[in-house]
Amino acid sequence: MALTAVLWSSDLRGFTERSDRLPSERMIALLNALFEAQDAEIRAHGGEILKFIGDGLLAIFPIAETDAVATVATTAVAAARKAITAVARLSDQPAMEGEPPLDIVIALHVGTAHYGNIGAADRLDFTVIGPAVNLVSRIENAAKMLGQPIVVSADLAAALDGFVSLGRHRLRGLATPQELFAPA
Known about the structure:
By secondary structure, this protein is of the alpha+beta class. Helices cover 38% and strands 35% of the residues.
């Protein structure tokens, strides 16, 4: 089945270094706080987390009607901004004592994905797959290299005002360079 949505892929910068240094119990508490902060904003803005991937997550903001793209995209960008602020406020958490603030990147793309239960007979995950999912994942990787907290695809930027081009970038696995955008 196909679903049109704003796709969200986020990741914690510096996770490997931090996880090498901190005890696993502390990292688990830190990750749980990180995911709670993002989940609160994603859900409050009509999104749904599909899966946690290490220190990252994949979420969707479904678009029920084709004329609602701008509305849902605006809502997803608002959620991203608030999630970044919420994550920055986690410095008061006990797991963060003596630690530098958490820093996440969020990639957003609007597109069509295929959804369903995928996995082995005794372990299925409900998820989305397809080129749109691959693209948002590649944009998230680019966001880290570009040093931008929020990076969006040309498709999402075209639906909204207030974005500046970050230029065209080669993304792993994609033949054509993609123009990426950040909030102005």
